Amino acid sequence: MPLNKLQFKPGINTEVTAYTNEGGWNDCDKVRFRFGFPEKIGGWEKYSQNTILGTCRSLHAWRAIDNSRYLGVGTNVKFYIEEGETFFDVTPLRKTTTNSTTFSASNGSATITVTDAGHGSIVGDFVTFSGAASLGGNITAAVLNQEYEIQTVPSTDTYTITATATANSSDTGNGGGSVTSKYQINVGTNAVVPGTGWGAGTWGRGTWGSAATTTAGGESLRVWSQDNFGEDLIINLRDSRIYYWDKTLGTGARAVDITTLDANAPTVARQIIVSDRDRHVIAFGCNALGGADQDKLLVRFSDQESATTWEPTATNTAGDLVVGSGSEIVQAVETRREIVVFTDASTHSMQFIGPPFTFGINQLAANTTIMGANSAVAVNDSVFWMGKNRFYVYDGQVQDLPCTVRDTVFDDFNETQSDKVFAGVNSEFGEVIWFYSSAGSENNDKYVIYNYDEKVWYFGNLQRSAWLDRGLKSNPIAASSNSQYLFNHEIGADDDGSALAAHIESSPIDISDGEKFGFIRRLVPDISFLTTPDTASKEVTFTLKAEDFPGTGFTQNYASTVTADETQNHVRIRGRGLGLRIESANQGVTWRLGSPRVDIRQDGRR
After folding, report:
1. CATH code of the domain covering residue 559
2. Domain of 171, in residue numbers
3. In this structure, is residue 179 part of a structural domain?
4. 297 neighbors 322 (Cβ within 8 angstroms)
5. Does 556 fall in a domain?
6. What would the DSSP string read from start to end of 87-129?
């Protein structure tokens, strides 16, 4: 009998029934499509053996004038600048007190009670002491004069820390020293707390979908935005302050509140962007000049070529404008020709138009949605984003992006943690990636990819909270959502030295149009192993599956191991429909599927 070639449509389709999707794929993990054929994705390894504190949700790479390469890393606990695989803590300070701090130690305990009136700290905050003298015994000056994480906050005037030594006597005071206490900005939570943020609050308290009117320190999900102004870095804590890190001061210097450099700068903002074309610093969702209240539709911009001149005058280009629809700006994304601004109800184009108005803004579309502060990403002059239960693309006009896996994504989606959605680009393979939390998880554990070169979709499981495309860095960088490491992606074939399992599975293909039973007795595989080391076991598992009727599911499975030297495998399976699954779980294995063939003969039930 002649061999029958198994050819499948590229991409994953779960929007139709498996029977309707004949000749297509309906499930995969750690697999992408190139030239219409599936292959295992690249592996990853640790970016650095050094760890960070907290969950990273912002990455930005840039190069200084002296060719130093930096990476900004914003977590819910700290803000770091990485250089040479070392993470330097540049987290801004919110408060410094002098000569007001005392310590109390108890014999046999490492817990130190710190008294500092009106300290403003919450559990998890960090404070650094200097100038303290020994309390006596094991609690020496060296033990006290370092950074500590605050463990408990009994009152507005006291908190506790866990010392690096256990007291062997009880004492209270500052040991005769003159203590300086430097408090870092309050930490943010690692989860969205119901009752705060977008859409929170009681029914009818305001317009539909408007934000809650009250928030508490430490309750909102910590989200950073950052961009470099030349060799310096500007960072913004969402719905809070804007900070400036001066490269000339070195990695030992902390970022400072930008209002210490210009009192007219915004005191609160939702996001910052440095406009590459015209060199303005733009603050979205900020307070008005001379005011303190945040207007979540107000956009302010600094003078051209100056990050620290924010008051408009007749001789500069600083200014502001207001987005005309929606209740709040959710995200802004810069393309090569414009800045696309998303509110909770509309999409806008902001462009540099020159004096006297500097920038103009026009509405592109109404009745659009966006999932969160990091759910849109630019690819050249196009912008892709995840909305509420759908995807969009802007490429000159706003339109829905047809998605063949939409129900699979949004039927298993944790809407409470929608602010954690992170969109990234893997330009080497023409992919836009969205990482998100599934219904049973509070942290990002899944991804969905749109391949804009192939015009296809696929998905899988991966715990990532932030992503940065290759550019100044040789490989894409991603942050883990369940560990304190960053990872270089598209390196090798493994999960940081462990085997990376991957699979893809097809919908059933009718045998003789589903009218008759067929007997499959031989499989001729067509698979190549790519950049696989000689020490690896170059093999995958081919599983042929058969069903008798549509909707009954596969009732027979015949698995066979296929190696690099395999020419054919003898199998025994019969049915009216035939499905194929390819999977691998060996370390070091990377593969690409071609067009396998099967020997099918007409048969009966026995």
Report:
1. 2.60.120
2. 97-184
3. yes
4. yes
5. yes
6. EEE-PPEEEEEES--EEEE-TT--EEEEE-TT----TT-EEEE
Among 461, 441, 376, 407, smallest CA distance to 192 is for 441
512: helix, coil or strand? helix
Residues 382-415 as b or e (16 or more Cβ within 10 Å = b): ebbbbbeebbbbbeeebeebebbbbebbbeebbe
Which residue in this structure is represented by tokens 């053996």?
49
Distance CA 81, CA 48 (A): 13
Residue 193 pairs in a beta bridge with none
Domain containing 173 — which CATH number?
A: 2.40.30.20
Q: Tell me how far apart the alpha carbons of residues 505 and 446 are, in angstroms, rounded to a whole number.
A: 18
Same domain, 127 and 200: no
Q: Write phi, then psi, for 513 (nearest 5 degrees).
A: 60, 25
Task: Indicate the residue type of 43.
Answer: G
Cα–Cα dist 370/389, whole Å:
9
- CA atoms of 348 and 1, how far apart (whole Å): 61
Residues 476, 489: contact at Cβ < 8 Å? yes
Distance of CA 273 to the CA centre of its chain: 18
3-class DSSP state for residue 76? Answer: coil
The CA–CA distances, whole Å, from 265 to 95, 237, 244 equal 19, 15, 11
The pLDDT score that the predictor gives to residue 446 is 98
Both structure tokens of 324: 């005309």
Strand 281-284 with 298-301, pairing: antiparallel
Instruction: Tell whether 163 and 193 lie within a shared domain.
Output: no
Is the whole model's pTM more than 0.90, yes or no? yes
203-251: pLDDT as tens digits: 443 444 444 433 334 457 899 999 999 999 999 999 999 999 999 999 9
Please identify, among 221, 246, 269, the residue that sits at the C-terminal boundary of a domain. 221
Closest CA to 544 of 529, 566, 561, 567: 561
288: left (phi over 0), alpha (psi -120 to 50) or beta: beta
Helix (H, G, I), strand (E, B) or coil at 313: coil
Which has the minimum average pLDDT: 11-25, 32-46, 309-323?
Answer: 11-25
End-to-end CA distance of the chain: 19
Distances (CA, A) of 581 to 27, 218, 251, 504, 565: 9, 47, 51, 6, 20
Core vs surface per residue 517-541: b (16+ CB within 10 A) or e: bbbbbbbbbebebeebeeebbbbbe
Structural domains in the chain (count): 3
Q: Which of 322, 37, 328 is nearest to 207 (CA)?
A: 328
Is 108's pLDDT higher than 80?
Answer: yes
